[in-house]
Write a structure and sequence with these properties.
Largest sheet: none
Mean pLDDT: 81
Order of helices and strands: HHHH
Shape: elongated
Number of domains: 1
Low-confidence stretches: none
Amino acid sequence: MRSLPGSFRKAFTLTELMVVTAIISLFIHRRMPESAVFGMSPTHLFVPFVLFATWRAIDGALKGNITQHRRWVAGLFFGALVINGVNNIFYLPGITHNVFFGP
């Protein structure tokens, strides 16, 4: 197997961590244990998006469709990291909100 360039290795690791984190988050139900949707919180809505966007980004890269790859990676960054982060910090009560604004 040939060695991977540095940027590819970093992108692969980031993608791998995002997918693993999305899957693991499905097993965390402490935030809303009485939720009507099996204890899922609004953050769990991003799990299908992360998995789908990751698949589309990898599909675009493997097929050589760089435009598709760039758009899905940008969507993955803003949708899964930025929007979800802002949602957790400012709108959902919990640990992340309490770190910034106190209990």
